[in-house]
Amino acid sequence: MKEKRLAVSYMRYSSNKKSDNSIEFQRGIIKTYCLENNIEILEEYIDEQVTGQIETRDSFMRLVRDVHNQPKWNTIIIYDYSRLSRNLEHSINYSNDFEDLGVKIISVTQPYGDTNEGRFMRNMTFAQNEYYAKDCAKRISDSLTIRAKKGQHCGGKPPLGYDVSPEGRLVINEKEAVIVQEIFNMYEHGYSYSQIIEELTKKGYTNRNGKPFVKNSFTSILNQEKYTGTYVWNKVVSKDHHGRHNSHRYKDIDKQVRIEGGCPAIISPEQFKRVSDIMHKKYEHNAYQRTRHHYMLSNLKILKCAECGAYMIGARNNSRGKEYDVYFCPNRKAKKCSMPQIKAENLNKLVAGLMISAINKRDDLNEILKEARYNDEERRLQDRIRGKEISIANIVKALEVGFSIELMQRLETLKKEKASLEERYISCKNKSKDIALNNKAKLLKKLGKYFITSSDPDIKLFLKNNIECITIDHNDITIEYIA
Length: 483
Hints:
Elements: E1 5-13, H1 23-36, E2 39-48, H2 58-67, E3 75-78, H3 81-84, H4 88-100, E4 104-107, H5 116-149, E5 162-164, E6 170-172, H6 174-188, H7 193-202, H8 216-222, E7 230-233, E8 257-260, H9 269-291, E9 303-305, E10 313-319, E11 322-328, H10 330-333, E12 342-343, H11 344-360, H12 365-371, H13 377-401, H14 405-453, H15 457-466, E13 467-472, E14 477-481
Parallel strand pairs: 1-2, 1-3, 3-4, 9-13
Antiparallel strand pairs: 5-6, 7-8, 10-11, 11-12, 13-14
Helix pairs in contact: 6-13, 11-14, 13-14
């Protein structure tokens, strides 16, 4: 009797419905083929509910790895070539790669063979599969575009704060809308994601799945333009050839569907703009911190080389496994200057100390400390009071639409919280006159460290406005102040 051929099968289906191409159907056809051709299936590789246009399918990637590990089988059985991929480039590359490694692909329903004609037919089928996938995607997109232009929801879960009406339009979910408003208010008033989660949890708010909010929840909420009443669809760029989305990249405006007043508003366009600006500034600041090291006196055009007159810059050195920061003359590397580098730590401490001594002698010390944000309890309380006022106004608007016991209870709670904050603010304001005297040494010490470590533009501006020039000589440092 002829020895059985060892093989594995690969099956893929992009839906969870049973049809003529379901996993069960494919398995039955493959099993019959293997019985008729004396083939033994050692393992099944299955990807369910995933499109063939995506390359990085879990089971398919595992199959690729196994092919490269010299398996004891030398054949892959598939129902048809569209199961392998619906991307022409991927189909050709993987089939050629498998063949080079001595592994043959057999399509049960498309047995083209290994002749030149068979290879031509196989590659034509690959191209047809890609065309079908793209054509199908276009028809679906066209259908959704028609719905979107009517202001109708285009599938999936609606954003938090909305439900979908029987007519397919977004309508406000009053309970969830209050949560959305509070998230925007808190973020605008300086709450971190962790603090927002803490406040929402205290009030018993959960996401629509009944689970606590997590940090990842807020980016999509705070970027959701529908909350302003503008219905937006097709905003984010399409998936790449790996099936990945970049939610921070947007299509051109003319390729988006945008309908002013296409859905009910939960927040004002003005607040959305303010929050967007805050998020953008934080993103830029974090990107700056990730890519650049902070040097207290760099890029201010005040740190000068006495020998050649060039402005010195900061750099990080490594000696015997230890890293440290220095300031150096850029002309030294070009051998146009002999000025040695100077340790940044020592110079930073010297300049910060002199700045603090000068500040300590000023009559407006209290105001400086407030501007440096070390006496900012009043500001935080004012922001929180304003946040409560906005929340109260939003609930009053919601009550005008329809009465709710829960909203009334929430309104009373907010009024009590606002009254408590106002009492704390008055008390804090009465004490603020003496805060600089009582905590002067501690606050000045913190301010000194802040000068050295902070990339805050206000601190940079303060140094620039108070120091005319710092001249570094071989054995001397001269500091000139602005009168």
